[in-house]
Specification:
hydrolase activity, hydrolyzing O-glycosyl compounds, 2 domains, Seminal Fluid Protein  PDC-109 (Domain B), single chain, CBM_sf_5/12, Chitin-binding type-3 domain-containing protein, 138 residues, alpha+beta, 3-stranded antiparallel sheet, 4-stranded mixed sheet, hydrolase
């Protein structure tokens, strides 16, 4: 098997593995096992216990905290990760902007031309670099 074929095979296997690990969308009326991972409104959750998501019971991951635990993801930016117009940001996500670190206060899209940068939009961002954590690159 040539090098190109091996690389292609590894990429295909990696893609299949990633699909197998990806959270499936939450659906009403389905049985969930403890530890099963789902996606709901752009966030991932893990079932705390086995249960049936009964139709009409409103047992979705956002409404039923006793059944679902949000998956905590590392939302801190890599050094040099910075705020950009046109990107979607999730509540709790960290960005750097002009040498300071900010945390998103709500899910939003930084609409191009709206000037919703962290310094100009305090309803969307809060500064979190209080001298106790390293500042990120400009």
């Amino acid at each position: 098997m040539g090098r190109a074929s091996r690389v292609l095979l590894l990429l295909l296997l990696g893609g299949v593995s990633a699909l197998a690990l990806a959270a499936q969308p939450w659906r009403e009326g389905r049985h969930y096992s403890a530890g099963e991972r789902v996606s709901y409104h752009g966030r991932d959750y893990v079932a705390r216990q086995g249960h049936e998501a009964a139709k009409g019971a409103n047992w979705n991951p956002e409404a039923a905290a006793s059944l679902w635990e949000p998956v905590q993801q590392n939302l801190r930016p890599e050094p040099g990760g910075s705020w950009q117009e046109g990107r979607h940001y999730r509540k709790g996500q960290f960005v750097s902007y002009q040498g300071r670190v900010y945390r998103a206060l709500q899910d939003h899209e930084a609409v191009k031309g709206a000037n919703w940068n962290p310094r100009q939009a305090p309803s969307l961002w809060e500064p979190v670099d209080d001298g106790k954590q390293p500042r990120l690159g400009k």
